[in-house]
Structures are given as C-alpha cells and as structure tokens.
Design brief:
Tetracycline Repressor, domain 2, Arc Repressor Mutant, subunit A, DNA-binding, homotetramer, mainly alpha
DNA sequence: CATGAATGAGCGTTCATTCAT
DNA sequence: TATGAATGAACGCTCATTCAT
C-alpha cells in the first residue's frame, strides 16, 4: 500500500512550509527578481523540481507568501476596532502595526521592496492599493472621532510614519528603537485627546 | 581641432545624458532588474553597443544615476543649514526634501524600490546607509537646537514621515496632497518651538 | 488461494488495459511527445507510479500499444488470403484495411503521426518497414495473379491509396465518405479483371 | 562606424538561411518535438541565443519554414490551371505535386509528421485544412471537366494517391520509383478521357 | 563614435523515472 | 499492489556583454 494519508499530508505540509519559509527569507534578502528558483531549492535542500509540486510558478509562490501574511493585517485591524475610545483605537492600530512588523519582518521587507514595481504580480498591485486605501480611511475615521481639526492630513502623516518607521526598522532591525519610537508616536499623535484628558483631571 | 574636440565632448555629454534619462525612466517604471539593456537602447534610439561606450556595465549605469541624483540631496542640506533659527532649518530641510522629491520623483521611486535589496550594487548600500545616518544626525541636531525634549526619537519620527510621505507621493503623484501634508508636518512638528513662540507673544 | 491469484491476474489485466486505452487516446489526440505520463495517469485515475508497475517506460507503453494493434493487421491479411479469386482477395484486403482503420482509428492516427520520426522507438521503425514491405509484396502478388500488366506499380499505387485514404479519414472521421470511397476503389482498381469477367458473360 | 548595411544584411540573410535549413533538416529527421533548440544551434554551429535574434520562438521558426514552403504549392497550382485540357490540367497537377515533393522532401516529411498533432502550431492546423479543401475542390473540378461519372469520389482517391505516394517516397526517397509511379497514375487516372481520345482516332 | 551580430551563462519550468512506505 | 513525494536532466528562452567592422 501507499504511505498513509496522514504521513503524506505531513510530508506535504512540512515541505510546503519549508519552501515558503526559505523563499520568504531569500526574497526578502535579495529581492524577488534576484532570487532564483535554484537558490531557493538549494537553500531548502530540495530539488528545483519539487518546488513545482507545491507551487505552480515563482509568481504563485510569491502570491502564497502574500496570502499567508496578509491575514495578519486584517486581524490586527479588527483588534484596533475594539478599542473603547478613539485614542485607544489609534494606539492599538499603531502598536498592532509594529507587532506584526516584528513578527513578520522578512515579509514586510519583501513587500516594501516590491511595492514600487508595477507588474511584478498581476493581482498584487491592486490588492496593495486596496489595503492602502483601507488603512488611510480607518486612520482618518479614528482621528476624526478623536476630534482632530484636520483628520485627512493627519491620517496621511500617521500612515507615513507607520510606513516610514517600518522600513527603517526593517533595514536595521537590531538597532532600531522600535518600542521607544512607538511610544513617542502614540504620545505625540494624540495631542487633542491627551490635552483634553489632562485638562479634565 | 579644438572645436572638433569640443563638439565631440558635447555629443558625448548629450548621448550620456540621454541614456541616463532613458534608463532612469525605465528603471523607475519597471524596476532595475526587469529593465533590460535592450529596452533602454531601443527607447533611447541607440544601439546596445553604444551604451557600453558610456557605461561599463548595467551596474555602473545605475551607479551613475545615483551619483547624479545624490548631489541634489547634498545641496538641499546645505540650504537647510543656512536657516537662521532651528525651526527654520527644520522647515527648510522638510520642504527641501519634498522639492527634490518632486523634481526627481522617478529617481526616488527607483531608489525606494532598490533600498531593500542587498547586493544590487556593491557600494550603493553603504552609500545609502551613510546618507541615512547623516540625515538622522542632522535632524537630531536641529530638533535638539529647537529645544525638543527627546530629539533622537523625534528625529526618527520626522525622518520616517519624510520617507513615508515621499513613498506615498511617488506611488500616486497626481493625487497626493504633498504641499498640504508638508505644511501640516511643519506645523505639527515644531510644537515646543511653536508653543514657546506663541507664549512669548 | 487459486481464486485470489486469478483475481489478481484479472485486476492486473484490467488495469493494464485501462492504461493502454487511456494512453492510446491521449497519444492520438496530442501526439506521443506532447502526452505526459502525468496526463495519462490522471486521465486513467491512477497514480503515476502504478503505471510503471505495468510498463517499464513510456517507450514500452508505446510499444505495447503497437503490439496490440498490429495483430489486427495480421488477422486481416489472413482473411484476405482466403478469398477465392485474386479480385476477391484484393477486395478483402482493401475492405479489411478500412475495417481495422475504423475499429482502431486512434491507433492509426498515432501511427501516422509517428511514422516520419526516426528514433521514437528503436524497434518500431524496423517493424513498420517490415510490415510495409509485406503489404507491398502481397498487393503485388494479388495484382499479378489478377493479370495486371504492371503489378509492381499498381501495388505501389493501391498501397498509396489505402494509406492516403486512411489518413484523410482519420483527420476527419465524421465527414469522410469512407465506404463510398472503398467501393470506388474496388470498382476502379480491378478494371482488367472486371472487364474480362464482364466480357466472359 | 558600424559594419556597412549591405554586409549586415548579408550576414543576417545567411544566418537566417542557415538556421532555417538546419532546423528543417533536423525537424524532418527527428520530428519537431524531438528536435531541441540546442540540437539546431550545435548543428548549425551557432549559439542558442543567436537563433532568437532571428526567430522569436521555436514555434515561429516552424511557422517560417512553413511559410517558405507553402508558396511552392500555390505556384504549382497556378501552373496546373494553365493546362489547355482537363486531362492536361490533371497531369500538370499530379506532376507538379511530385516536383515540389522532390524539391522539398524534408519539408514534406516534416509536414506529414506534424499533420496528425493538434495544437502544435495554432495557425497551422487551420492553414492545412484550408489547403486540403482547396486541393480537393480543384481535383473535383478537373475530374468533372474531364467527364468523370463521380468526380467527388475520384478526387478523394486521387488526392489520397498523391498524399500516399508522397509519404512513401519521403520514407525511402532513394528507392521509391517516383517517376514511374507518376506516369502510371496519369495513365490510369484518365481512363474515360484516354479511352475517348483513343476511340476518336 | 557607433553598430548590431554573436555569445554563453543562467533563468523558470517540465517531465520521465525512482523509491520509501 | 499501489501511492505520490522527490529527483535531476533537459527544455525553451532571456539578457548583459563582447567585438569585428
């Protein structure tokens, strides 16, 4: 008889995970275009052919990496939404962004490297644009709820901060003071709220 | 003879400039790796071989593009330095960054796309890191001079804003409210100074 | 025990037949080289590995298909030989050729597609050449017996007709008037015989 | 300055012709699918890359071979049409077919090998079907003009003969008595005409 | 200065075949 | 008997680079 179904599934899962992990590591280090299938296979200790048992193409491998990591973003947004005050929602959103950044820094490095290239992956650009618009809208809403006098502009700035900090962190993860910067952002970015609260005491 | 030499030099310069311009356009559109020498030569209306009369390799062409555009940054910094107050120096630096961003948005798009890849160009990563460190130090100094209570962190944040806004702009240049955002940054990012000034009146 | 062995043999036979059938269908549709083992296995609903339990290689699978279908030809020739007059033997041979063509049109399509390639299968070319020579000789003999004035040339022509008609039929099986063409061939190809017979009445 | 335009064109022409010639030879020997680009390049004494300076793909190389050889067929048909009697037109068409067969036997071998495979070249199947229909119609017309009692069926048979003889010849060009067979076809295939003519004397 | 024919290494991908289970 | 994960060689093709002219 054949190998048991369970064993097969286990083999498949571990191979697939190994490929995804290795590809993400190399993509994020050298960039998508400069990472060859050969590099991935050798680094994972498998044959090039095996990779195609799991992913139909290099593009699909990239898509799978994105699919896997994008669910984090949704979850993080959902958590932010549950904050009880606008200020808390903003804080949750900012801290959540940096939490998933830390957890998955290779992915974000890859993502930031790919963002400027049109046509790397057909659906990817559209997906990214959608995600971006959603973040901007959410930030705007939170800032408006918090009583800001120009929530659109402040949302743009806050979004830029998150993106900018994320990239600076990802470029030098060991040296960047991510937590301190996060605290400072929270502190600085709720002036109206903070001031109101403080005044209320 | 002398005139002939001068004419030659002029032709060389214009050919070189044409290649640089064309390459920058294509690199920024499709990314460095997805732009072939053939594409550049065809788009510039020259032969592939000629390109190698001006640049020893594709890498050197990229290096030349960076060298050309990086001088802008230096000039912009020099201008910032001449502001008469810390607040003005900060403002000049921020506005200068966005001015050169607008002037050379293709380059910045290319640069942001390449930043995450190690080994695209040997010297480039080092150069970029140096430039980055310099910006951070300058910002820190300005913010310290302005009397900020945590200039290092604020410098990190201001730098992140500049980078973040620049990328968002470069992704949608026609729709991004760059000037309004710039004003808002200036306004928001000198709270201590502003408050002090205001209080002094 | 005995029954188990018999059952095993029966399963083997049916699996083998299924593979042969599926392979023939796909080979004839897409050509031998453009049909992968994977396609055959999937289409037959078995694993790729199993196929190698029955056939040592793709080439051997092809050889088995040929072996299976070539016996038809022998049988058909035997039947022709039993005709009581030269004219009847010719008619039987022609009609027999078209009968096995109809019965096994996929095989003939495959065979005609492969015939021009050397080295597809080592033995195949030799086998084909032998078969071809035999047909030519038999036709020549029949035509000589029928009193033709140039049996060699007429045999070449009759053979060409059979092959040509077969291919045209196989290319458009639903539209080709095979029976009418067969009648016409019989009619036209025994003029001397026919005329003699008719005159004798 | 560059090489002269004339020299360049000459180089291009001879390289292109060499590739076409080599590819046709190998395609016809081993079949399209079993002939690799590497084989062609090595056999032609050029690099694999160079081939792509002249043909965008293996498929286009095949298409170019077909385009080159198909014009012969048109010319041959035009010549047949100019015969002064139906019998002469038939003779011209038959002899013309065998003339271009001899002239370009490699091409016809390739063509016969490819005919049974759907989807080798997108446009090819359609083109072939069109050509086939045209031949059949022309033959039918000639035979009707010659006063045949069943021109459709006789056209099918004559067409089959031409195709069948062509393939038998192409399989053993050195041994096949093509001219004698051609004479015999002409002789046998105009019985009504011939008989009429003879009777008239 | 300028051309473009030519190269060769490497790319992403396919596929017949093997083998542990 | 039967599976399917895994291999490795070969495939069609791209592209930065060279060089004779």
């Amino acid at each position: 008889m054949a190998r048991s179904a369970a064993l097969n599934q286990q083999m498949r899962d571990s191979s697939r995970a190994l490929i995804l992990e290795t590809a993400l590591k190399l993509f994020s280090e050298h960039g998508y275009d400069r990472t060859s299938i050969k590099m991935i296979a050798e680094s994972a200790g498998i044959s090039q052919g095996l990779l195609y048992n799991y992913f139909a193409s290099k593009d699909e491998l990239l898509a799978a990496i994105f699919a896997q990591s994008m669910s984090d973003v949704q979850a993080s947004f959902a958590m932010a939404e549950e904050g009880s005050t606008p200020a808390e929602r903003i804080e949750r959103l900012v801290r959540g962004a940096f939490t998933i950044l830390r957890k998955n820094q290779q992915f974000w490095r890859l993502s930031y490297g790919l963002r400027m290239q049109q046509g790397v992956l057909a659906g990817l650009a559209k997906q990214t644009r959608k995600s971006t618009a959603m973040i901007r809208q959410t930030l705007t809403r939170y800032l408006r709820d918090a009583g800001g006098d120009n929530p659109e502009l402040d949302a743009a700035i806050l979004f830029a901060i998150i993106d900018g900090v994320s990239q600076h962190y990802v470029l030098e993860p060991t040296r960047y003071p991510l937590d301190a910067v996060a605290d400072r952002i929270i502190q600085r970015f709720q002036p109206a709220v903070a001031r109101t609260k403080r005044a209320a005491r």
